[in-house]
Amino acid sequence: MRLLTATTLLLATAAAAAPDITRRTVAGIDLVACKTPVAGVVTFRGSLPAGERLSPGAPLVASLTAAMLDRGTLRHDKFALAAKLEAVGASIRFSAGENLLSISGKCLRKDLPLVIALLAEQLRHPAFDPAELDRLKKQTAGRLRRARESTATLASIAFARALYPPDHPNYALTLDERLAALESATPENLRAFHAATYGPARCALVFAGDLDPDEIRAEIEKNFAGWTGGQPLPPPPPVPPRQPAAGQAA
Fold first, then answer.
1. Running DSSP on this structure, what letter comes out for residue 72?
2. How far is CA 139 from its chain centroid?
3. What is the largest CA-CA distance in the chain?
């Protein structure tokens, strides 16, 4: 079965859903703009293939890369980025799952040029500052050590390890394996993963609210022009052969 995401499903139907929805490829990005009656506010969602399955043999690298996007770029440190967004009451968030980097945010219409510029800056030019990565690793390690006290977490890991083979995306590393992977992650690992996976290929962005589609397209073109690279979605895992029930012939 072909892997589809919520963003992909939305993109597949959005342009035909209403006359106020437009879909274009802009700077290589699949861009949807949806004008709604909500006054003054714009919300956006997006994704690109940069999840854990695209970093085989390097657990947590995708998650750490996503978590470092708002911790400083080549132009602004994390405090400057946060201050610019806080000053206008806007937000930009990133998170990595098994297959995708997820993007979300919200701002006032008048602040769209600033927010799109910061979004592009964080996606294209993260700094991966070693000191910031060390702080992130310590915070993550603390959460993983606390998880040792959660019987629900331990049971979930044991269940996934018993049910799936190690090459399956639903297989779970032990907490000690995650801590070891975390300890070994370096800024160079994150830069290499970013260079290999981040780009407009299969990147989708959806903006909805009080907006002008032409303005959105112009800002995306201005800030993402020249961005290259990216990866296709990884293929779905193979379906294991069905085992006959007890008492049935194979």
1. B
2. 20
3. 69
- Helix runs in the chain, H state only: 6-17, 61-68, 78-87, 112-124, 130-147, 151-163, 175-184, 187-197, 213-224
* Residue whose tokens read 């592009």: 120
DSSP letter (8 states) at residue 171: -
Judge contact between 216 and 33, C-beta under 8 A: yes
H/E element holding 34?
Answer: strand 29-35
Give the model confidence (pLDDT) of 39-87 as tens digits.
999 999 999 999 998 987 888 999 999 999 999 999 999 999 999 999 9
Task: Annotate 63-100 with DSSP letters as a single string.
Answer: HHHHHHTTSBBSS-BHHHHHHHHHHTT-EEEEEE-SS-
Burial of 171 (0-12, 13-18, 19+ CB in 10 A): middle
Please give the Cα distance from 29 to 201 (Å, whole number): 7
pTM (two decimals): 0.83
Provide the terminal-to-terminal Cα distance of the chain, rounded to the nearest Å: 25
**Spatial separation of the C-alpha atoms in residues 164 and 245, rounded to whole Å:** 19
Q: Which amino acid is at 113?
A: P
Question: How far is the C-alpha of 170 from the C-alpha of 177, rounded, in Å?
Answer: 15
Three-state SS for 103? strand
Distance CA 250, CA 246 (A): 10
